[in-house]
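Aim 2, interim progress. The first record below pairs a target sequence with its structure tokens.
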Amino acid sequence: MKLFLAFALTLCSNALSAPTPAQWGSYPNRPLELRDLVPPDGRRFSLIHDFNYVDQTGRLWAAPADLITDGASIPMPFWSVIGGPFEGLYREAAIVHDAGCCAKMQPWQDVDHMFYNAMRCSGVGWLQAKVMFYAVWAGGPRWTTANPTMPRECKIAQSAGPGFVSRLWQKSLAPNVTTKLLQEVGRRDLTLQEARAVARPFFTRGPMTDAQATEFVMKLKKVGAKPEEQELIALSVIQSERFSDEDVKGIEQWVEKENPSLETIEARAEGTRKTGTEKKTPELRLFPQVQELQQSVKSFSID
């Protein structure tokens, strides 16, 4: 099964590796090859070999072999724009962005700009690439101190360390928010939007339907979730509170109409990111009974 997955992903990467204009850089060691973790969870993968992106200035962005990747560096409400972080032309750029965010060896601004250029290098059109650039600038991870090397726990050999979600978003997860949120999921029927927020992290290979989200929640109530999965659910709910489906559609429409520059996108994204810090008690659309979410939503907007 693992061999089949690697073979299938290799074929997909080969099919999507059409030549791209030189101004967007290059991927010198295509094809991209991924494998399931052991045991597989259908959500996270690791790199079989080094996969690098060289931007248009010649700067090397490395995603090393054994890197654990799950698309968590891209705000999950925006996955609907692309279908999932491992979907189609976005997969190469998403994995290199995951690597940059986990390593934290370069300024976050440079990593986000690299993501845009890498998407264009992979053949993503300007509209969707700019929407996704807005997504990571408005809701992606940030850091102020650069690491000298990639932390060991970014790789599969060190999987016993803290999870990818914990490493990237530890400031956004208020004490007890994960526990209280999962208790609320098990206690009552969820609204459709709540169900979509809970299920979204587990649909990384394609679009998620409302029926699939509802079915996932029903299964979750029966079998529960592992600690790393619980954190991922909490993060998805926090991000979905900050960015509703209507917000995402509004950004798509704005980018399509205005074709803004990256600088203009950055300015609008900064305004969006800081909005949450201006409210002392954010009104929750999702899971209003879980008061711990208020602090998490507020913290999500703080650099």
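The second target in this work package is listed in the same format:
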Amino acid sequence: MPIRHTDLETAAASAGVDVHRPFPKERWISSAPVFGGPLPAVCDWKFAASQTTVATLPDAVLLSGLFPLVGDDLVVTGMHNDAEARVSAKPPRLEGVRESLGGPCFLLGGHPDNFWHFLYNFVLRLAALVAHPDPEVRDGARILVDDALPSSFRPFLHLFGHDPARFLAIPSSRPVRVERLVVSELPFFRPHGRPRACRGAIALLRRHLPADRPPRGRRIYLSRADARWRRVANEAEVAAFLESRGFETVLLSRMEPMALVALMRAAEVVVGPSGANLGAALFCPQDAAVIELSYEPMARAYYFQGASSAGGLRHLKVVGRPEPSGEPSHRWAFHAPVPALADALAFALG
């Protein structure tokens, strides 16, 4: 029988279980001043008044890629990036299920190679666990993560105050049966964000960061010089300008996780190209400024602007000139206009 895709609420109804929504509805409008390029002077995004659905699915099977299978033919979707087609194209062989987990387990998952998606689409899901009404789940459920997570990502899992022993790495390459699988929709995911879940998760994270906050005032340039795509073509010019204004250039790939957290907690202004590097802004103090360097059409993406708004950060955009190539447009290199960047920096610093 072919696998049918469904959303979490429909899957829960088919299993005869109730859902709950731990965060109330809230409309979300995010505004960002824009410098340079063809966009309007202010970029507004209006997010739907959506809610995060949470359900406990009985006798579920986690398929390849940590997709829950409920019953014989329902795959819960709308929680991962683009893998639904791959799941349906290669139906799983359920007779290969040899591992079972008893008791409640909370599906965290995790993106194995994208820092931004890992933080905003998966780690923030822990807010739904903390808000769960069942104390057995809230205080005792094992937290399932993808065993393909890089070692550099794993320390971030423990910033919410959960006992590291609660995290259990699950193989994403073979199916695992779970007696009671607690699943939450992602708090921040296209086509709309879920603001209360995002804001609640970020507030929770900040409460569990070390109490000895470093002095604020550092200016950080998050370079993508070693990224596979979306690099700044005039990187040397941009870095030189920013360094003349007191910025330090940082490559996330070369930083230890806790050193990165400490650095961002002290930030006054963060500048960086559109991309996973901006996920580090999650750790910035409220009211810090984030200046996103981008280009058309990438500048119209809401992800980074919306994430800043959820964290109480001031977001600005500098729109440059793309350098089209044979790659999809979201992978193009681009030229960042330094005069527009100077205007944005002056605006951010007031």
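The first helix runs from residue 8 to 14. This observation will shape the mutagenesis plan for the next reporting period.
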